[in-house]
Amino acid sequence: MEDRKIRIKAFLGGFFNSQNLGDDQDIFALGFVNSLLAMQLVSFLEKEFEIAIEDQDLDFENFKTVNNMAVLVERKRSAMLASA
Amino acid sequence: MAQAIENPIMQMELSPAQKEARLRFRGFVQEHIRPYAAQWDRDEAVSPKVIDHLRSLGYLGSPVRRSEGSMDPITYGLLTEEIARGCSSVRSLLTVHDMVSIGIWRWGCTELKAEFAEAVAHGDLLCALALSEPEAGSDAANVATEAVLEDGEYVLSGTKRWTTFGQIADLFLVLARCEEKLTAFLVPANSPGVSRKPMSGIIGTRASLLAEIVFDDCRVPKHYMLGKVGFGLSHVISTALDHGRYSVAWGSVGIAQACLDACLHYTSSRRQFGCALRDHQLVQRMLTEMIVHTRAARLLCYRAGYLRSTGDPGAYAETLVAKYFASRTAVRSANDAVQLHGANGMSDEYPVGRYLRDAKVMEIIEGSTQIQQVAIAKSPLAEI
To answer: What domains can be seen in chain A, in order of their start residue?
Structure first.
């Protein structure tokens, strides 16, 4: 889980200074998330963690914080393993 | 001691299959599109026959994951370039149909996909994007069309304009406000409450059957919403627009190449001051600019296509760059092409006037040049 958070923060670091970003900090409240970044974030999570983000995953809570994204990744990967 | 690099050669070449596909696309366009493009432009309508042809060859819906597999982004780009080289209006059909098809496949729920995914993937149902409104163009977040949940159905009300192929589309991807949040819906054209009015007198991509679409208490099942409430613009329409920009970038390369083809031919055969136009140095300067910018635009498209092939998140930003540069190149090339043709360039006996009109459209659709300038300047600079 910690490794995933580091990788998510590293990705976000390409868009803003994420060094001091807290795991539970609301990234939408920081004001830099536009539709381009929103789609890049989906694409990053899919490629980096080999998951597929689907329509039912579209909930701002899932993408709001580094912690929430890591939980989403964990949930998706567990579901994939269970159905494999 | 320096470590040996396993493969030091950067791959910059199409695969044999891609090269073969490009020749196939070129042959199809030469035979079935190019000879008719000027007439379609005058008629303000592409023929139903060419749409049937695109469908039968599997060119409509080709980027989505059909049972027979999807077309890879580079091959898709080659197809788009070749079609645009013949007729930008036909290219625009491919663009809008595939934008919506991808949106459905990416963000539709299981029930919606069971109903429409295969039909759009094979072009059996034609799609159009109903985004712009009389008072909302570049400012898409300001759409006024409303959707209200009522008795288990969504009821849509509002007016859309500039809907490419809106005159004949079977399905519309519509951006509306729902609970005050931007939300996307798929609306069949035959739904009660949908009416359309052809828009004529357009100067560019004249044959693309534009329409104004009115939704008057139009009811659609609840599962016709794509994504979730509030994700319509940020994810659903953004997915469609991203594909649209990729398609428009390649289409712009096609126009620029068509301009170059026309100018190389014209300046070789037309003689002034005792020699071919091509032998005049100022003409050579214009041809060189056209050649170099067209190649540079194509390389940016290859780069965007490569990143799309690998699922790289940077593909979104790279596609913006490709669209920005290629659409400006198309306009510049077409402008110079008309200039090189002199008075003939202003006549519809030559195609370059049409190329200029079509090129200008590319700087406006799927994010105007000015919108791209804002977006690119804000993009991460990691690549640089």
So the answer is: 2-83 (1.10.1200.10)
Tell me the torsion sign for CA atoms B270, B274, B279, B282.
Answer: negative
Instruction: List residues bridging with B195 in a β-sheet.
Output: B214
Place of tokens 């296509």: B305
| Catalytic residue, candidates B82, B349, B366, B383 | B366
The mean pLDDT value for B185-212 works out to 97
Residue A60 buriedness (CB in 10 A; 0-12 / 13-18 / 19+):
middle
Closest-approach residue (CA) in chain B for A43: B313
Chain A nearest-CA distance from B245, in A, is 13
Tell whether B320 is within 8 A of chain A (Cβ).
Answer: yes
Mean pLDDT of chain B: 95
CA B25 to chain centroid: 17
Say whether B318 is catalytic.
no
Instruction: Using alpha carbons, select from B65, B45, B237 the residue that is nearest to residue B145.
Output: B237
Q: Which of B53, B218, B86 shows the shortest CA–CA distance to B145?
A: B218
The predicted model scores a pTM of: 0.95
Read off the DSSP letter of residue B347.
Answer: S
